[in-house]
Design brief:
mainly beta; single chain
């Protein structure tokens, strides 16, 4: 028996005490030779134990521990535990108490040497032991702990790495040579050759071929395995050596307490040092700091913190392996300062300072002042380290738009003035910046912008970044589609316009034709030219040219031109192409000649083959045409299977015979065809490819990940893992698990048969050992890569009372602000049953988790809401039982809160044909291996008799077989092998009941009716019976039944239907008393039926019969002249009431007459019946206009009459219509003073007392009285306050109501307004009193008197005044006194006379009388003419007319009146206009009165004065009203 052990020791906190002490010492020399004096005794001489120990450490001295001997003793102590062998100790050291924990890991090794060889750092130790050491070898755990004992008061030796190789073999012969032992050890170390596992063998038919291939592969794999093993061991040793050196250097001065580390304040091991540098050069300050805990270092410049963000690119702070540095790039003079590094931890602070001096070379300042730039050391962009991050994807653009291709990158160092060197290529041709191509590099991004896209820009774009290690590249295709055509069906624009064979007056222009998919074929092209610098294009060819080249003549030598091309087909002309580059007409200089003279289009390409590429693209390749004829490229077209419409896959000829078509719908099936292109046009289409579904290319799945331990019972471990991120285009149908001891390199297969579940229990493990596991996934393409090895898992039985971790965290229904997380229950439940779960969430990269549910949920899902759109989160789940909260699950995969493009939700509905209730989801993406997994309350439904699941294309439907309340709940569906397509829907009781009703209606069809059977009276008295169904098919049948007898279409009945509107009808031409009864319609439409009845008897029938008879008479009436609209009224803007009607079927001979109360009214304007309308105006409408108005229309064909009764409600409606217009036109209240008091007036278009007007004082209604008089005229409404006092002060308003709206106008009669009005009232009152009592001539005098000579003249008049006035007569302004010839008489103070006896011509002249008292008087003139006998009576010469003078008397002696009427002592409040002229007065109206207030014609109109004409009109439109019930004559 030969067994090898390789032991690596590490520090562990767990301590296992050894049963006896250890007493060995290291020798004083530096070679660390082994002191073999203390070898323990062994009672089993039949076994040989030999080996070597390789260790490394720090420190030394006589007091240090002999580590090799200690490990030797360690192994023996373990052997003693397993075999009950009691080894003897050479020494007993109870004074040693220092302990060190060492972890031991296991790897295979060969047998060591039997003798002791002394080398530096390597010692060989022979030893023999008991036969039971074999058990120790097989049962030794992967990791165990021991205690190292060190001398008290001695500095412990720092041992970082110790390697032990033990070889245990039977001692058959003590003389066994060393070479034999080494050979056996080498043989034991050799790994077996790789062989193919049985479970991966092929079928019986392929066994022979498989064995042949596997034999050759096995040999090759064996060689590869040996080489890999050698390289692995060499690399491992090198890495471990470097790790040891690094750890030793890092802890050279640190004192380590192996149980608890010693706190220490910061200390600078390497302090800052001063620097003096030249301007424009960098400087680096660095220092080394130690401390426990590790200190935090901050940098300061002159006491101010250094912030790299404030000066990007200026400062760079680094901290690696305990070395802290500050790099200042491109120093300037102002960077001269004292810099300090401050190290801080919880135990103190330490500071290191250094001075940095920046000097400027001599002459540098002067050169800068002269405007010269000092020379800078050039840093080439290829020295930068550049890594591309986000890369531009396959892009799609449209002609005329713009697009940018952007790739972000990380640049080290990131210098603002030295950007990376980036080059852009299109179809492997280097692009240069121009108006059509814009490039930018900076801000950690490279950007290419195409501001004016054309199809010339389509192609494969490549970004090439030059880096320190070479170049970094990325390529993606840009597709540019045609813009909207100028005319429907017009072709796309040509492209790649270029000039060849350039001469002084001639150039050959060539181009590439556009792709025509669904458009009409191209019949030709027009070529246009334009001189450089001009925008005027000139067409070069009169007729379209049919080939893609054209010689342009007539150019001017030395001038530059641009060219463009337009395509023509039967639908129109395309948009112009992009103009060509500038071409100069030069003499005898040919830039480039167009190759190819062979005419005709190429032949059609050969076979087209489409294969899977990605989930949204397909790889298409084809055979080139047999006759290429100078081929320009190819156009690829595609269409969806089942569709007739082709679409263009590329819009610019593609030169190769393979092409990737992007932008396809995942899961959809397509076919493709190809056309070849040259200057003569497009070839015939190739044969179509076979249909292909858009799926990712078939490959092996990626590696599983997230291996986690779910439970352990001491001899087995239950594992779980996550499925591969990429299934390889085929369903993952098997998982294979490998295991190994944590201290070995050899993997062992756990399962030979593939597992279908992602949970497995690995048995036959050794308790206490550490194991690693890895998993492979397999699909129909094979077995994929192995996962990364899991973390070492210790096989120790779980005895904790809390539950184990949940596992298999997944997500569903990821939306912008919510998602659903699901998980599986822990395998290990703890000491009690599970009671719930807590879910924690954190943003990606953050360690701050937030518990989402305050109370534990008892189901294994949780809907998370309130997420930030576009943010990425991670989750974990903790199970809970009665004993507490268990271990958290592994972190979930990061999930971004963003819905997939095109995401749709579950739709609940009822099948229109079968009536089945269903839930349906149309997936936004799908692949060939995808399945729809339905769940209820997030538990998979599986095979359930209550539902049936079907899938067709991208749509899945869950149908309920017999839905009831047990089916209520939340249903969800997940589409496998997608990027998370899922949705959910909650089926509520209300929704289910609604769908059950609809389902019943579908399964038991009834023709739904919009309207049941009804009737309608038509013209001529016809009656229409009808009903309307929601929907009718062309095959509908029906029948009408009247009084239990079927009625068919025939004489007197017309039956018909309209499928479009769903109307079924029957028309009865002669509706009489015999038609009374019950009407029924029976309908049959497929399986559906309907019936509707109408009972037409009794009063209902009488109403219908009366209406039918009326309509019959109306039809007869309308045969002659008749009223199409009976009399109705309208009110015009000036409040004139118009009685109007409309007439029809009239002629010139037709007469029209108006009547009121049977008395004919003759309007000023005769009615014109030929206009179709007649109207009768009723101005100044009032109660006097009440009555019955009638209009009569007649001719030889007949007569028609229309009446309207203007009384009652109609009268009120007219008044309201007038009030509406008048109220809208009403002015603000105007204050007017009179001798009787203060008057408030409101002017409007028209006022009548029948209008509903209310005056208010302080919101109290005013009733007309002696104190408050209310009245109005046709122009205004007024309210007069007689003998006003302070009580009448306040707010006044008038309200005009039109039955719907109230129009209010207000006036505030208080303050200064009242004072001014009251003063004016007093003035007018005094003036009126004086006017009433002044002297005046009441009457009796003529204006002109003509009298014959010798006659006597008596001028007599009545005068009045209080007190009695004085009367004086004048002739020609000379006072007349009484004489014999002339006598003046004043009788009783009332009658004044002037009598002239026997008049002579001398008495002719102007006579006047002056009547006056203390209040005033009146002066009246009379002209007297005397003529002789026989002379002609002269024309009277009138004097100035006298106001209020009666008509002139005849030429006889006037006689005084018998009873002169004195003036009434109680005059009317407002004297008439003829007697009292209106005094002028100022209005006390406040200045706030609008200037537009209408001015009254008379300031003090009398109530009895006739209504003046109205001149002010209201802008309110008239309201037209019809008579509620026009009479039918």
């Amino acid at each position: 028996m030969q067994t090898g052990l390789f032991l690596r020791l590490k520090h562990k906190r767990q301590v296992l005490n050894v049963e006896w002490p250890l007493a060995v010492r290291l020798s004083q020399n530096k070679s660390r030779q082994m002191d073999a004096a203390g070898s323990p005794q062994c009672n089993a001489p039949n076994l040989l134990y030999s080996g070597w120990i390789n260790f490394s450490g720090s420190g030394g001295g006589s007091g240090d521990l002999n580590t090799a001997r200690f490990l030797h003793q360690l192994v023996l102590s373990r052997v003693k535990t397993e075999s009950a062998v009691e080894p003897q100790l050479l020494q007993d050291r109870p004074d040693l108490q220092q302990r060190q924990t060492i972890a031991v890991e296991h790897e295979g090794m060969g047998e060591g040497m039997s003798e002791v060889s002394q080398q530096q750092g390597r010692h060989r130790i022979p030893h023999s032991c008991s036969q039971r050491l074999r058990n120790f070898v097989s049962k030794m755990p992967l990791v165990f702990s021991v205690s190292e004992i060190c001398p008290r008061k001695r500095k412990p030796r720092l041992v970082r790495s110790i390697k032990i190789c033990l070889t245990i073999s039977p001692r058959k012969s003590s003389s066994k040579s060393v070479s034999q032992v080494q050979a056996q050890a080498t043989e034991a170390m050799a790994e077996p050759a790789y062989t193919i596992p049985v479970f991966r063998q092929r079928t019986a038919e392929e066994t022979e071929e498989y064995q042949r291939v596997s034999a050759n592969v096995g040999k090759g794999l064996a060689v590869i395995q040996e080489e890999l093993h050698r390289m692995r061991m060499a690399t491992k040793a090198q890495v471990e050596s470097l790790e040891i050196e690094r750890e030793v250097k890092g802890r050279m001065t640190k004192r380590l307490d192996l149980l608890d580390e010693i706190p220490k304040m910061p200390d600078f091991l390497v302090a800052l040092r001063p620097h003096t540098v030249w301007e424009k050069t960098p400087v680096k300050l660095f220092c080394t700091v130690e401390g426990n805990p590790r200190p935090i270092v901050k940098w300061y410049k002159g006491g101010v913190p250094v912030d790299p963000l404030n000066a990007p690119g200026k400062y760079k702070i680094e901290s690696k392996y305990g070395v802290h540095s500050l790099i200042i790039s491109r120093c300037v003079v102002r960077d001269t300062a004292e810099y300090s590094a401050v190290a801080t931890n919880q135990h103190g602070t330490a500071t290191s300072k250094a001075m940095v001096t920046v000097k400027r070379p001599s002459g540098a300042a002067e050169s800068c002042q002269l405007g010269l730039v000092p020379h800078l050391t050039e840093i080439h962009a290829s020295k930068l380290e550049v890594s591309l991050l986000d890369r531009f994807p396959v892009s799609f653009g449209v002609e005329g738009s713009s697009i940018s291709l952007v790739s972000t990158m990380v640049v080290v160092p990131d210098l603002p003035n030295v950007p990376p060197l980036a080059q852009w290529y299109r179809d492997d041709k280097l692009l240069k910046p121009s108006k059509l191509v814009e490039m930018a590099v900076g801000g950690s991004a490279a950007r290419l912008t195409l501001p004016h896209l054309a199809k010339d820009d389509e192609g494969l774009y490549t970004l090439r970044i030059f880096t320190k290690d070479g170049t970094a590249e990325h390529s993606a295709y840009l597709f540019v589609s045609d813009a909207a055509p100028s005319a429907a069906g017009a072709p796309g624009a040509p492209m790649s316009v270029k000039a060849y064979d350039i001469n002084s007056d001639y150039v050959l222009v060539a181009w590439k034709p556009p792709n025509t998919v669904n458009e009409a074929p191209i019949t030709g092209y027009f070529v246009d030219r334009c001189e450089a610098g001009s925008d005027t294009w000139v067409q070069c060819n009169d007729a379209p040219v049919k080939v893609c080249k054209y010689p342009v003549h007539g150019l001017s030598m030395g001038r530059s031109y641009h060219f463009r091309v337009r395509a023509v087909n039967s639908a129109g002309i395309s948009r112009p192409s992009r103009k060509s580059d500038k071409v100069t007409a030069i003499d005898a200089a040919e830039n480039e000649r167009l190759q190819g003279t062979e005419e005709g289009v190429p032949s059609a390409p050969g076979q087209v083959v489409a294969t899977r590429n990605t989930k949204s693209s397909v790889f298409v390749q084809w055979e080139p045409p047999k006759h290429q004829k100078h081929l320009m490229g190819y156009y690829i077209d595609g269409r969806v299977v089942g569709s007739k419409d082709w679409f263009a896959c590329n819009h610019k000829p593609f030169k190769h015979t393979r092409f990737v078509v992007h932008g396809l719908i995942p899961g959809e099936s397509y076919v493709f065809r190809v056309q070849a292109v040259n200057v003569f046009g497009l070839s015939e289409e190739s044969q179509e490819s076979s249909p292909i579904s858009v799926e990712p290319a078939l490959a092996t799945p990626s590696a599983p990940f997230g291996i986690t331990m779910l439970s352990c019972d001491g001899s087995s471990i239950t594992l779980a893992w996550k499925s591969p991120k990429h299934c390889g285009g085929s369903k993952v149908n098997a998982y294979y698990i490998d295991k190994r001891d944590a201290d070995t390199l050899v993997w062992k297969e756990v399962n030979l048969t593939g597992l279908t579940e992602r949970v497995c229990t690995v048995d036959n493990l050794t308790e206490g050992n550490f194991y690693e596991f890895r998993v492979q996934a397999g699909n129909m393409a094979g077995v994929g890569l192995s996962s990364a090895p899991s973390a070492p898992m210790k096989c120790v039985a779980w005895t904790m009372e809390e539950p184990g971790p949940a596992y298999d965290l997944s997500f569903s229904e990821v939306r912008s602000h919510s998602l659903v997380i699901l998980w599986k229950a822990p395998v290990y439940t703890g000491a009690s049953a599970l009671t719930g779960y807590f879910v924690d969430m954190a943003k990606k990269g953050s360690s701050e988790f937030v518990t989402l549910n305050q109370e534990a949920v008892n189901h294994r899902y949780l809907k998370v809401t309130g997420l930030e759109e576009g943010e990425t989160y991670v989750f974990r789940v903790r199970a809970v039982n009665a004993n507490g909260v268990g271990k958290a699950s592994q972190l979930s995969e990061p999930v971004c809160a963003k819905a997939l493009p095109g995401t749709k939700e579950i739709v609940a509905g009822v099948d229109e044909e079968t009536g089945d209730i269903y839930l349906s989801l149309e997936a936004c993406e799908i692949c060939e291996t995808s399945k729809f997994v339905w769940s209820k309350n997030y538990k998979p439904i599986g095979d359930c008799p209550r539902v049936a699941v079907t899938a067709q294309g991208r749509t899945s439907r869950l149908t309920f077989t017999n839905p009831d309340k047990d089916d209520l709940g939340k249903y969800s569906v997940v589409v496998t092998d997608t990027d998370g397509v899922s949705s959910s829907h909650t089926l509520t009781e209300d929704a289910l009941n609604t769908m059950l009703e609809l389902s019943h209606a579908i399964r038991h069809p009834v023709i739904p009716l919009k309207h049941g059977l009804n009737y309608e009276i038509l013209e001529k008295g016809h009656v229409r019976f009808w009903l309307q169904a929601v929907k009718l098919s062309p095959s509908v049948s029906y029948r009408f039944i009247v009084n239990d007898k079927e009625v068919t279409s025939g004489e007197g009945h017309k039956i018909s239907h309209d499928v479009a509107t769903g109307i079924i009808q029957m028309t009865v031409d002669h509706f009489t008393r015999n038609n009374e009864g019950t009407y029924t319609v029976q309908i049959h439409d497929g399986k559906a039926k309907a019936q509707s009845s109408l009972v037409l008897v009794g009063d209902v029938f009488k109403v219908a019969l009366k209406e039918a008879e009326f309509q019959r008479k109306e039809h007869i009436r309308k045969q002659g002249p008749h009223f199409s609209e009976y009399l109705y009224f309208t009110v015009t803007e000036d409040c004139t009431v118009m009685l109007a009607c409309k007439v029809a079927n009239v002629k010139k001979e037709t007469t029209f007459h108006w009547f009121k109360e049977d008395e004919e009214i003759v309007p000023e304007t005769p009615p014109n019946v030929m206009s179709g309308a007649c109207a009768l105006p009723l101005p100044l409408f009032s109660r006097k206009d009440q009555g019955v108005f009638k209009a009569v229309l007649s001719d030889d064909r007949g007569k028609d009459t229309s009446t309207i009764d203007i009384s009652g409600q109609v009268f009120d409606d007219i008044i309201n219509a007038i009030a509406k217009i008048a109220g809208a036109s009403a002015s603000d209240l105007v204050l007017q003073c009179t001798p009787e008091g203060i008057r408030l007036q409101c002017y409007m278009n028209y006022y009548t007392e029948e209008m509903k007007t209310v005056w208010k004082h302080k919101e109290t209604k005013i009733a007309s009285s002696e104190k408050m008089r209310i009245g109005g005229t046709a122009e205004m409404a007024w309210m007069q306050i007689c003998d006003p006092s302070d009580k009448e002060k306040g707010h006044y308003s008038i309200e005009i109501s039109d039955g719907v709206k109230t129009h209010t106008r207000t006036f505030d009669l208080s303050g200064q307004a009242y004072t001014d009005a009251y003063e004016e009232y007093l003035r007018l009152k005094a003036a009126a009193f004086a006017e009433k009592n002044r002297g005046r001539v009441v009457g009796g005098l003529p204006d002109v008197v003509t009298i014959m000579e010798e006659k006597s003249l008596s001028l007599t008049c009545t005068v009045w005044g209080e007190p009695t006035p004085e009367v004086t007569w004048f002739k020609n302004e000379q006072e007349v006194t009484s004489t014999e010839h002339t006598r003046v008489v004043f009788d009783g103070g009332k009658f004044a006379s002037l009598v002239i006896n026997k008049v002579t011509p001398d008495d002719s002249g102007k006579y006047s009388i002056n009547v006056r008292n203390k209040y005033g008087g009146e002066f009246v003139e009379i002209t007297v003419s005397v003529y002789k006998h026989g002379e002609q009576i002269p024309e009277p010469k009138l004097g100035h007319p006298r106001m209020a003078t009666p008509a002139a008397t005849p030429a006889t002696t006037p006689m005084p009146p018998k009873s002169p009427a004195p003036h009434s002592k109680t005059p009317t409040p407002t004297p008439s206009k003829a007697q009292t002229p209106a005094p002028s007065m100022k209005s006390p109206t406040p200045a706030s009165t609008p200037a537009s207030t209408p001015v009254p014609k008379s300031p003090t109109p009398t109530p009895k004065s006739p209504t003046p004409p109205r001149s002010v009109k209201s802008p309110t439109p008239p309201r037209f009203m019809k008579s509620p019930t026009p009479p039918r004559k």
